């Protein structure tokens, strides 16, 4: 028996997901179940992490001023940080201009560390936010005398590269 395989052209990893799952992973997250939304964001980031189209997706999102969801494994704030780094490096970004997408994607391909830097800064910001929230709960607990649970921070990395990260 001869097995026939359908060859597809190169496509981003996210295109292999059904629209329902793509919306869950990369779309804007509805308020409500924060734990589930966090897992979806982490899953989206893992899918994007090894995708060869990440620089193009990121450049397109930045040049189109996309303000929702996860794109190229990064949330909106991290994408804004990449934009600021690119502008500081002299990359001209004009909203909606295809030439800007090409310039920015070439710059991201040449400087892949900007994605890791933006992701690390977002992790720091989320940790600060979590610590501030915990401090506020403790302070309120002391004032009212009520027992308010404190959300613990994740463990620090054990070298595997996966533990202790709030956002991947």
Textual characterization of the structure:
- The protein is mainly alpha-helical.
- It contains 6 helices and no strands.
- Helix 3 packs across helix 5 (98-110) and helix 4 crosses helix 6.
Short summary:
The protein is an all-alpha fold and 168 residues long.
The average pLDDT value, as a whole number, equals: 80
Shape: globular
Helicity, as a percent range: 40-55%
**Secondary-structure element series:** HHHHHH
Gyration radius from CA atoms, angstroms: 19 Å
Structural class by helix and strand composition: mainly alpha
Task: State the assembly state of the protein chains.
Answer: single chain
Q: pLDDT under 50 segments (min length 5)?
A: 1-8, 157-168
Distance between the termini: 44 Å
Query: How would a textbook summarize the main sheet?
Result: none
Q: Which strand-content bin applies to the residues?
A: under 5%
Number of helices: 6
The count of strands amounts to: 0
Describe the secondary-structure layout.
Elements: H1 19-26, H2 34-49, H3 54-63, H4 76-88, H5 98-110, H6 113-144
Helix pairs in contact: 3-5, 4-6
């Amino acid at each position: 028996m001869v097995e026939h395989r359908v060859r597809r052209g190169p496509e981003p990893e996210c295109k292999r997901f059904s629209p329902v799952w793509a919306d869950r992973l990369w779309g804007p997250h509805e308020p409500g179940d924060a734990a589930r939304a966090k897992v979806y964001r982490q899953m989206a980031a893992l899918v994007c992490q090894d995708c060869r189209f990440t620089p193009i997706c990121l450049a397109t999102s930045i040049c189109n001023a996309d303000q929702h969801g996860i794109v190229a494994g990064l949330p909106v704030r991290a994408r804004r940080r990449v934009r600021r780094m690119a502008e500081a490096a002299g990359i001209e970004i004009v909203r909606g201009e295809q030439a800007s997408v090409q310039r920015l994607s070439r710059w991201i391909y040449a400087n892949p560390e900007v994605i890791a830097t933006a992701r690390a800064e977002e992790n720091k910001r989320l940790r600060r936010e979590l610590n501030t929230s915990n401090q506020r709960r403790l302070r309120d607990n002391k004032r009212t005398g009520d027992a308010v649970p404190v959300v613990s921070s994740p463990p620090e990395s054990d070298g595997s590269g996966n533990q202790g990260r709030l956002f991947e």
